[in-house]
Amino acid sequence: MVAGLIDHRLSEVEFTGVTDLPATVQRSRVIVTATPSTKPLIQADWVQPGTHLNAIGADMEGKQELDAKLFQGAQAYTDDVPQASEVGEIQNPIKAGVIKPEQVVEIGNSLLDPTLGRHDANAITIFDSTGIALQDLAAANLAFVRAKEQGVGTQVDL
Question: Would you say the pTM of this structure is higher than 0.70?
Fold first, then answer.
């Protein structure tokens, strides 16, 4: 396992190998999973209040990175509810009856309606990204424009 620590003063990310996944998850407030796992790697009882998780590895039926119980009481978001219900991380808690598709907020709707965002600082939030190309392109373009405005980053011509 690898954990990334961000030092905002240096604007760098330091990656450190870890061997104790439960302890690492318990100390983390932002967790990104990007694995091909077919069984939960992150258990619900490891995650502390106020933690945000980005689950991007579950992109086909049968994949799973998060314990379905983690969705109980969490605020769940995705890029596309129908697609994520079939192939995303939310497929598992839906099949287990932990949540219903209508409880999951599409991320675009939360941007348009602030009341759909995080309710309090202790809420556990989960973003299940299944990959919508148009959203990915829009986000990449925004990152490019902001980096250019701030004079950071390196443009590479391919």
Answer: yes
